[in-house]
Structure to design on (423 residues):
């Protein structure tokens, strides 16, 4: 009697391929393209090809193979759709993906991306952000009719690209699109050391004097940026309700991200001490704002923005416009630095030079230690502000650094000294 039992179908196959053998195993169908998916491995001999097929079968059974042959463009779009990013970070990530990652790796299968490809990609960006490899240098672009000039991409920008690829591939690893996160094996460029270039005291005083001559509100904005060391978005989002004139305190709670008011960059609120001179500058600024509102038949709201393009303070200044205006001012007075953020570096250098504690300068929220004294002292030396100096000696006979503490007795003493000097 004939044997009617069916022989088991052998999974995978081996075929001649060049000088060796190729083992292949069927995985399944791509859920996106509906095409059949195979995994392959090359071996020099038939015996080794059998071992390779067994290994591939084991990988398929253990689900360690790519479930789909999706492209990097698809994976990056899927990651961008689920990543928890704020509005500014999302726009930056979307721009990096659109300008750098999709043109280079958009059609590449996610499973075929290697660490070598990424490191070569980073190296080419360090030579030219358009990855011309020097072949287009000096040649005329047929579209723009201009000569191509190689402009390298800075290390910080390349690191941003790397830290978009790494979480995207990590998410693809959890989803089964790739078997390993090659970005985790890739070494990004080193973090460059900070190299602040603040304006000199003479340049800072020159800029502030010119700003106050042009516009009192504009001069007040630069003055507050200089003495508080706040970021431009934080100063644009400052409201009158964040300022306590009685206790000489200023709360930094929010930041302006061009489209909406959000948390600060560090997602932390901080409290800063004010000097009586800073309070006087803000009181004069508020008086001008109230006069403008009264001229229009309105009233200044308690939560109005301190720096606004509207008379009633309903719309905050845009950070980009502030930077552009400062750059035009810096070019006009011909100082060596043209970035608004350098005023923050100026504040830090003046504080450290005046003896302030490093933790105070870093945190800017310790209200019982030195705050804005050195910066105000520098402005006083150039005749733009008037300060109060108490004569006292340290434990070793040296004059200590001027400090500003929020304390009721100290506040009352400063007020009385101010009144007596005015008289």
């Amino acid at each position: 009697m004939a044997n009617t039992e069916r022989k088991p179908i052998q999974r995978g196959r081996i075929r001649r391929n060049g000088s060796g053998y190729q083992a292949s195993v069927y995985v399944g169908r791509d859920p996106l393209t509906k095409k059949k998916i195979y995994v392959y491995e090359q071996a020099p001999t038939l015996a080794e090809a059998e071992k390779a097929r067994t290994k591939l079968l084991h990988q398929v059974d253990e689900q360690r193979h790519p479930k789909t042959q999706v492209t990097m463009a698809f994976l990056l779009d899927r990651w961008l759709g689920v990543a928890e990013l704020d509005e500014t970070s999302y726009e930056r990530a979307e721009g990096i993906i659109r300008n750098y990652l999709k043109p280079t790796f958009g059609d590449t299968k996610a499973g075929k991306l290697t660490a070598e490809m990424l490191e070569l990609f980073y190296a080419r960006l360090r030579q030219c952000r358009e990855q011309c490899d020097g072949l287009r240098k000096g040649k005329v672009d047929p579209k723009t009719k201009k000569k191509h000039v190689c402009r390298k991409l800075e290390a910080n920008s390349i690191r941003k690209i790397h830290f978009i690829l790494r979480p995207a591939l990590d998410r693809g690893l959890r989803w089964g699109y790739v078997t390993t996160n090659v970005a985790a094996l890739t070494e990004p460029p080193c973090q460059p050391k900070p190299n602040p270039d603040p304006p000199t005291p003479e340049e800072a005083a020159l800029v502030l004097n010119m700003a106050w001559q042009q516009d009192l509100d504009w001069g007040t904005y630069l003055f507050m940026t200089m003495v508080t060391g706040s970021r431009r978005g934080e100063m644009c989002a400052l409201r009158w309700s964040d300022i306590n004139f009685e206790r000489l305190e200023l709360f930094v709670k929010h930041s302006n991200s061009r489209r909406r008011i959000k948390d600060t960059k560090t997602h932390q609120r901080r409290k800063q001490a004010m000097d009586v001179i800073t309070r006087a500058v803000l009181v004069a600024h508020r008086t001008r704002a109230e006069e403008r509102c009264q001229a229009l038949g309105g009233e200044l709201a308690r939560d109005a923005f301190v720096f606004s393009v509207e008379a009633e303070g309903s719309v905050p200044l845009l950070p980009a416009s502030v930077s552009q205006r400062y750059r035009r001012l810096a070019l006009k007075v011909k100082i060596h630095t043209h970035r608004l953020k350098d005023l923050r570096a100026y504040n830090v250098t003046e504080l450290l030079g005046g003896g302030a504690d490093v933790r105070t300068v870093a945190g800017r929220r310790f209200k019982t230690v030195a705050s804005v004294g050195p910066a105000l002292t520098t402005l006083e030396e150039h005749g733009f502000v008037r300060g109060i100096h108490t004569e006292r000696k340290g434990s070793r006979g040296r004059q200590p650094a001027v400090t500003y503490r929020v304390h009721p007795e100290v506040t009352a003493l400063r007020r009385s000294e101010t009144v007596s000097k005015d008289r």
Summary: The chain has 15 helices and eight strands. Confidence is low (pLDDT under 50) at residues 356-376, 382-390, 398-421. The CA atoms of residues 313 and 397 lie 50 Å apart.
